[in-house]
Structure formats: C-alpha cells, structure tokens
Amino acid sequence: MRKLYFLLPFIFLACKSGTSTSNESGAKADSKPIEISYKVKESEISDFLKYLSSDELEGRETGTQGIEKAAVFLEDFLKKNKIKPYFKTYRDTLTNFDLPAFNIVGVIEGTDPQLKKEFVVLSAHYDHIGLEKKEQADKINNGANDDASGVTSVAAMAKYFSETKANKRSILVVFFAGEEKGLLGSKSLVEKLKKQNFNLYTQLNIEMIGVPMKRDYLAYITGFDKSNMAQKINEYTGKNTIGFLPKEAEYQLFYRSDNYSFFQAFGKPCQSLSTFDFENFDYYHHVSDEFKLMDIPHITAFTQELLPAVTKIAVSPMQEITMNK
Known about the structure:
It comes from Flavobacterium chungangensis. This protein has nine helices and nine strands. The protein has helices at residues 8-14, 42-52, 65-80, 144-164, 184-195, 229-237, 246-251, 259-266, 296-315; strands spanning 84-85, 91-93, 102-108, 119-125, 170-176, 200-206, 219-221, 242-243, 270-274.
C-alpha cells in the first residue's frame, strides 16, 4: 500500500479491541449464493507467496532486477495456467517511469457472446520498496503482506477461472508495478485502456490480506459508501464477508491504492479489499514484513470465501454492482 508513513505515529493510538468496531454493512443475503466446489489449496498459496516475498527478489522495487525476477515468475504462472496475454505479451510497459518497468496483464475471455464484452478487473500490485539504504543486518523489505499476499490471492482466483471457465464476463488479471512510486502502473494502464474504449464493469483490487482481523467480518472495503459492492459481496457469499472499518474512512484509503486510478478513469465501482486494520500487523514498510509472519490458512480462506462473489460478479446478467448516488 502506498505511502502511509504519515499514519505510523497514530497507529498505536488508534488501536482498540477488535470488538469495538461495528460492522455497518447491513447486508442481508436475499438470494441463494453460488455453491463453489473448487478448493483453493493451502500448499499452492504458500509456495507462491513464499517465492514472491523471498530474499532473492530483494524487495521488488520498481525498475530493479528483483522486480524483474518477480515479473518473470508471474508471466510463467499465467502461461502455465493458460491465461492469455491481454496485449501482445504479458508485459505492459509503464509510460510514466524512467527505468524499464512493466505491469503484468492477462485476460480470461468470458463465455457469453455479449457479456464477454464487459470486463471484471482482478488486481494487486507486485512491487514493493526494495532495499534499506542504511547499513543493518536485514536490508530487504520483502513485502510479504504488502502486497505479495494480494498478488497471491488474485493469482489463485485467476487459476480458478482459467480452470472452471465460470466467467461469462471477461476477466482482466493485472499485477501492477509502480504502486509504491505513486500508483504509476495503474495510471499508465488506464490511459491505454481508455483509448481502447475498454468496457469496465467493476474492479476488485486486493491489498494486504496476509493476516486476519479480530472482527465479525472477514475483510473491509475501501470507499465503503461509494458503491453497493460490499452489500452485494455479502449477498453473493451469504456471509458477513465485508464490513465497514472506520479507520479506512478516516485515512481515506480508497485514494491510496490502484483502484483509485481506475475509478478516476472510468467512474465505475473500483475498490480495494484488505484485512490490514492498523491493529493486526506492526511491520508496514518494514524489513520484518516477511513470509514467516503470514497466515496461510487465512489467505486461503479469504480467497475461497470470495470465489462465490467474484463468480456471481462475472456471470450476473445485469450490472448489479453500481455506484451510490
């Protein structure tokens, strides 16, 4: 997640017991959720995240050899799972960064002749902040939670759609570079998509889901009141999946991740899902943000619980997720 340094002095002041924050979603399941037999595998979540947050990638700073290794890893994953490049190759070159840098973009074509013209974007940023400049024993900001965890979940969802063909709408799978440099990857990509008259339905951006919250809902959504996405996800899962986190609104996190670039460009529901709540993880932009602290069962369960929602988003005959007026 981009630039929360100004928040750090307030994080510990903000901490209260997990039961003190109420869930204001008020969403009720008024239709039967889709039942998903597909199972997300813990071992695959673990293996993927372990490599993406490994020392070998040296913190994945945009424009470095470390993020280049991550790009190759993500390309290989998409190719192995028969997910086609959206452009001529998987690499979408950033137009707003001096060094060579790339978003990694794949597409899973929808199965419906009409609905496939609409796109659901599943995204996360695969860059991080690289190496510490001062001399110390551990210099690598591995970025396991931020945001290798989100990339891992998006990759697992992409594999699900590739294997099941459960999407009538087309799925754009995006791993952004340059998020930590000022949302550069998403800003660059939306300019190209706008010129193509890209028909966006909605975007789900996954940001920092490596550890669970102690609340009565699984995750929160940024810009909770901007659309009905939270309510619809809860309806689609039949669970209290998404809740309202007051700290998200206070710190305006809606504007601090790659969903915002898409919202600005398209004016459609484009929001981030997260389980980092300022109380459950002490190592934001810190060398201790490492794989060993990640809760693999939680990431697996998070991804599994979202599958009915992303499936319903990808198959509903009408555009049910809308902006609030």
